[in-house]
Structure formats: structure tokens, C-alpha cells
């Protein structure tokens, strides 16, 4: 990354960089940009997207209980103090 580009970007972001910070940030941004260039080399033409901004359905799995897991009612029976289906706990504050 050119120093002038870094200086302009830092000014627009209202960042004050000294010479050492500017050199370090310039190196880091250059490494990032070269990594992005490598990513551009990967052929993704035949891959389906994993997310979409207009997706209308959840991708969550259905809730299911394993055979050896307790049911919610069984768990509530173990609670020391209940009010309806809520577990009461001591006040903290």
C-alpha cells in the first residue's frame, strides 16, 4: 500500500498515526491485500453460496431429544424452588 493512500485513509478515518504506526499499519494492510489477491485466484464459479441476504427460511436443525436426555418436565422436578414453570433463585443484589 502506498504511503499516500494510507495517509489519506487515516485522515478520512480521523486517525493520527506517527511514522512508526504508519509503517506498521502499511505493512499489515499490504499483507491483507496480498491475501485477498490469493483469494481471488480460487475458482468458486460452481459453488453455491452459503448465505443470502434475502433468504426467507431458517437453517436451524429441528430440536430433538436424545433417548437418554431428560425432558424439560424432568429437569424442572430437580429444581429446588419453582413458581409455575420458572426456577426461583436467590436475589443476587
From TrEMBL:
It holds the Pfam family GatC. The keyword Secreted does not apply. Keywords: Transferase. One of its GO terms (biological process) is regulation of translational fidelity. GO terms for molecular function: transferase activity. This is Glutamyl-tRNA(Gln) amidotransferase subunit C. It comes from Oceanispirochaeta crateris.
